[in-house]
What does this fold into?
Amino acid sequence: MHPPEILGQLAIAAAASVVLAIFFARLRIPTTIAFLGAGALVGPNGLGLVHESEAITLLAEFGVVMLLFAIGLEFSLGRLAFIWRPVAIGGTVQVSLTTAIGFAFLYFVAEDSASRAFLFAVACSLSSTAIVLRALADRDALDAPHGKFTVGALIFQDLLVVPLTMIIPTLSPENDSNPAIEVGVAVVKAAVAVVGAVLLARLVMPRLFQEVDRTRSRELFLLTVLGVGLGSAWVMSEFGLSLALGAFLAGLVLADTDYRERAVTDAVPIRDALTSIFFVSLGMLFDIRVFLDHPVVAISIVAALVLGKWTTGAIAAITTGFASRASWLGGIYLSHFGEFGFVVLTLGTASGLVTDEEMRLVVTAGVASMMISRTLMSAAPSLRAGEAVLRPLERILRARGIDDAQRRERDLADHVLVVGFGIAGTLIGHALKAARVRFVVLELNADRVRQGRAQGYPIYYGDITSPEAQNHAHVRQARAIVLVINDPEAARRAIAAARSISETVPIICRTRYLRDRDTLLALGATEVVCEELEGGTEMAAQVLLWSGVDAHTSRSLLINTLEVQGHAPLSHRRDEWITALEHDLEHHNGNDPEDEDDGAA
It folds into this structure.
């Protein structure tokens, strides 16, 4: 295909994506669905406007490489070690359970061969990193409990592709060699390649970027970032490993250098553009005729992918130590076919294990599962039916919960209930402890529960949205409830549940965005601390002070600005807030109002 034709077909695909994305946005349907739909509409199996998709597929492969490179930049070796439980335990349980169920059905019920049963089962156990990360980022849920589990499980799946690319060719009926020996040699080769790449990157990469940075050329820095990511992917492919693994390792090592933030800033726009093309290319694989020719089989595969992986993902999260709500949401985010599943099936086709018709059937059903699952992700916070089913398993596998507290905690009264034990929760807990105010903490992260208990905090594993946990935490007798959790929907549900128990207990809630304040107040929150507003106010105060404006003038300007913007504090706390702000401004100027009064006296 000539360059003008390639550009023309890219333009058609882009135009269809833009039109559908605008239309779907009005219906509040995720943009990812628009990209998949655009690919299905203009692709070879749709209107046929894009009849040669090789160029787009090539760009999509670059998109996957850049996506994994960006994932590596986001995590670093240190952060990867921090989430080892979701990666090692959650990923292992999710993939093993899904593969075992799929294998048992295909081998014992469908009476397929063991090689083919394993191939299809393990391909269906993989989920789409691109779709899930985009969905989590859109909902600002990467640091939420279900986000941490999902990302950990996806990293395990992406790493699993490496041994799968070596194992699948050995399953071919035409392969006469010993599979065990071939797999062993391949694993050793992979280990040597990975260790060598990491060591080389550790020694060379910091010096390389140091020299590039000295040129003060943004273009050269960006080219170096792309070269490192793509080069690492190519080197790994030469060793027979996955392109994605090479890109991921390059990002992982670069994340431990001083140039991580700049690399992320430069690489993200390219990643987003190429990932969007990747979704369009996936949509082109969708063939509606599959549902017309084999309706029962196709619908059964879609249902098995969505419902089956939803269930196995939730069980894996519970096993890892997450609460029923986080597990239920984590299952939703894994309930679809993944892009690396296509890679596995392609290898199976090349090895003679998968026919072209089977490939067409599974790929089409897989794309359909992506569309359904992405829609479910948007509705996930309001889907609660499975939480009650998971709670018995949660009680068996979780850390000691609030309902298992010792007698002294069962007699709680006139205490502060802190929900969440991240940085903000830790600060609040330390302040309450220092002030000798009785309090108890609920947290959904089992590791934080263990760490907090080791430090002597009265912290328990519990879900604040559960009425049972709230009863055991004595919400009715509490002096106040403090919500510092990263899940906005959970915060809303927690407020509503607390208000159903007590109409008078003060509820202090944190939210990131000012737009959520009125909703939280309407649900019953007493005070809402908005990170946008608090951060903006502090920044404005600092700017005024560094600009030479005196404290009293700064205070008046800030108060007037907040009132004009409609962001004045709640009326019954207004005087306290103004006094505190004035004191802060005086302190920044090096003056103490009390000292001035004493001097005047």
User: Anything to note?
Assistant: Confidence is low (pLDDT under 50) at residues 399-408, 592-601. The radius of gyration is 27 Å. Strands lie at 416-419, 439-443, 459-461, 480-483, 507-511, 527-530. Residues 179-214 form the longest helix (36 residues).
